[in-house]
Amino acid sequence: MFTSLPRVAALATAIVIGGAGLSACGANDAQTSGSDDGSSSSAGGTIALLLPESKTTRYEAFDKPLFEAKVAELCSECEVDYFNADQDEQKQAQQLTSALTAGADVVVLDPVNGAGATGMVAEAQGQDVPVIAYDRFIDGADYYMSFDNETVGQMQGEALIEAMDDQGSILMLNGAPSDPNAAQFKAGAHSVIDSSGVTILEEYDNPDWSPENAQQWTSDQLSKYKPAEINGVYAANDGQAGGVVAALTGAGVSRDSLPPITGQDAEIAAIQRILAGEQALTIYKPIPIEAETAAEVAVELATGEEVGETTDTGVTQSDYNGVTSYIFDPIAVTQDNVADTVIADGFYDASDICTGDYAKVCQEAGIS
């Protein structure tokens, strides 16, 4: 099927406005979305969507509603049963069992622990239910959707080194060890940082990606190092970048004296920090193309259609570790290209970003 994926400006805007009110689903209480007319029917098939956590803004604010909207567009009689594991591996395993018991025809699984999710894949496939590994790789899955994660880390590392003129010392905050993507981001970043003139003072693998852990860890490092000794910070995602900024400013570093800090996910707060000069960059991973491609494949599987090949630009269809895979291209966002990336794509409107104190920096950047 694979139609061209549309820009989703209106949906993205609505999602951003409503994102703060979204909450994760309980272990055995799925949120079910049905057809456009409000009715539910299993005639088109039931798709279980299992996401790993809600501390990272993207899952509840973008992945879930974008996926559900695309399924509804393609199959009015399909249902989506949604679960969020709240970073609890055992809870996610229970959710999978619940989804299968409820009659899921396809499972779209973003695992809390990719390496530990092979048993979940086997459980589903043992009931003839195919599994799409979403955003994080799972060995043995039927399909895999993600961005080029090692390239993400390389892009972050290269931008940080450039901002530091290839000299000085950094703190390095990676993602959760249970997240296979985190290992790839880390490997990509190390591949360029380790061969540069930059020195890593301390390194931390954040067990749940949380901004709170990032802030506490950074504050702890400030008891060992003076702020002037920290010339840059590699933060694997925007949530951690926000925690780093909070720790540094809480220690007396002025916002206009912050070192270059990386990020990922193009969260609104990160875009605002970038425009204000408080964060060097974020990596924008256009979630619509990932969520909608996953929805297209899921609908084809649920309705018994043959899964087609994608012709969309920005997508590489390949075999990754024996799994049919769709790999999407990440984009680095800096002060210079906010308007040409997240705004031009309709991911955010300027009005979402240019609020309060950020209206002035938006005007200076030519964003209105």
From TrEMBL:
Principal location listed in the UniProt entry: other
Keyword Magnesium tagged: no
Periplasmic binding protein domain mapped to chain residues: 47-306
Subcellular location, record wording: Cell envelope
Signal peptide: 1-26
Keywords: Signal
InterPro entries assigned: Bact_Solute-Bind_Prot2, Peripla_BP_I, SBP_2_dom
Domain of life: Bacteria
Ion transport is among the record's keywords: no
Pfam families (UniProt xref): Peripla_BP_4 (PF13407)
Name the UniProt record assigns to this protein: D-xylose transport system substrate-binding protein
Source organism of the structure: Nocardioides salarius
